[in-house]
Amino acid sequence: MSWQQNPYPPPQGYGAPPPMPQGGYGGYGAPPGPPPPHAGGYVPPPQAPYGGGYAPPTGPPQHHHHHHPHAHAHPPPPQHGYGAPPAPPTAAGAYYLGVPVPPPPPNMPAPPPPGYNPAHDVERIRKATKGFGTDEGALIATLAPLDAYQIDALRHTFKATVGKDLLTVLEKETSGWFEAALRAKVLGPVLYDCWLIKRACQGAGTHEDLLNEVLLCRTNAEMYILKQAFQATYGKNMEKVVEDELSFKTKRMFVMAMQGVRQEDNVPVDHQMVENDVATLHSAARGAGTDEIAICGILIQRSAPHLAAIAQAYQHRHRRPLSKMIDAEFSGHMKDALRYIVDGAENDGQGVTRDARLLEDSMEGMGTKDERLVYRVGRLHWNKHRFEGQIKPAYAQLFHKKGLKNRVEGETSGDYKRMLSAMIGS
């Protein structure tokens, strides 16, 4: 299967959500096939295409044919099909970034997955960090192969056994970009995203790329998990923290995104609604003044398959990509945020080309943008099916024929290089 093709739905079984049509592009669509072997012999539940390990949306989708296609109509208010509030995480956990994750805070820790003994890895880490000097190779060999359930079990077992926080210990023993790569691994998918949001909103200036990549194109279930975990971890309301960093229409756009009322990805695409949206987008960008909120509302609240259909229809009707309209009508952070969404919908419709390009952007030109490289590899590597089956082949085809690993190893050095290389895999 080439990386451009849409994969078929994941197999049913323990922990698997109902089959969903493919097309998600928030970085979370999973190609099919059995999961790769995991340390300890544990095989997690099948990976979900859209990160939604919650109850499916209630009721049939409500179609919105009532607005005139050329009106400056703002997107309709959330209705069924736009995601009823997701159920809280269950003891079985949920899906996040397309992979099964244990229930994040404030839930009780999940038990270790079958076949994985975290006490063994706790002892390896204790030995690697005891006395004078640190055995960085042992840390890499121990941590890099672990999946989200295993790293969660290790973190909790380390705290219970040693009486110290695992990340705090590693931060004292390591430094620089090696420390940053370890953090991306040790926190797991959910808590690392929480940390990234806090990082994006700290100090002078807002790290806009981070907010775009962590908060946009998320399923309602993922947004629910993220907000709950952020509150439990930092004692602050995530929405307020982000809103305080933004202003005007960009703030309104992120408020919409964080509400978690996006059309669900398993709602069938309504092609009349697609045509209406294309007309609204075109109309909102014409004449005196751009109706930014009308455009943002459509791009923020529509499902991934629906946005992919909009991108195709817009190109067909207006003979130019939707991304060119965004470039012409917007600037600054709002342009970058909307381009992140639209770039995911264009090309393959699943964000594969966009995510491969973002990896390359971290390394091209003068100097490696190490922070971006760490968090992009860190966030993408959890979903092995998508990373191995789509992102890495796309990267090799588009940017570096020797592959992502070869490119990263040429841009990094030392333990930092070895950790990223281990996360990327062969």
UniProtKB/TrEMBL annotation:
Family: Belongs to the annexin family.
Residue ranges with Basic residues bias: 62-73
Gene3D superfamilies, alphabetized: Annexin
Keywords, sorted A to Z: Annexin, Calcium, Calcium/phospholipid-binding, Repeat
Record field: compositional bias (Pro residues): 7-21, 31-48, 74-89
Pfam families the record matches: Annexin (PF00191)
Region (Disordered): 1-89
Top-rank taxon: Eukaryota
Protein name in the entry: Annexin
GO molecular function, one term: calcium-dependent phospholipid binding
Lineage, highest ranks first: Eukaryota, Fungi, Dikarya, Basidiomycota, Ustilaginomycotina
Record remark on domains: A pair of annexin repeats may form one binding site for calcium and phospholipid.
Cellular component aspect of the GO annotation: cytoplasm; nucleus; plasma membrane; vesicle membrane
InterPro entries the record matches: Annexin (IPR001464), Annexin_repeat (IPR018502), Annexin_repeat_CS (IPR018252), Annexin_sf (IPR037104), ANX14 (IPR009117)
Organism: Ustilago trichophora
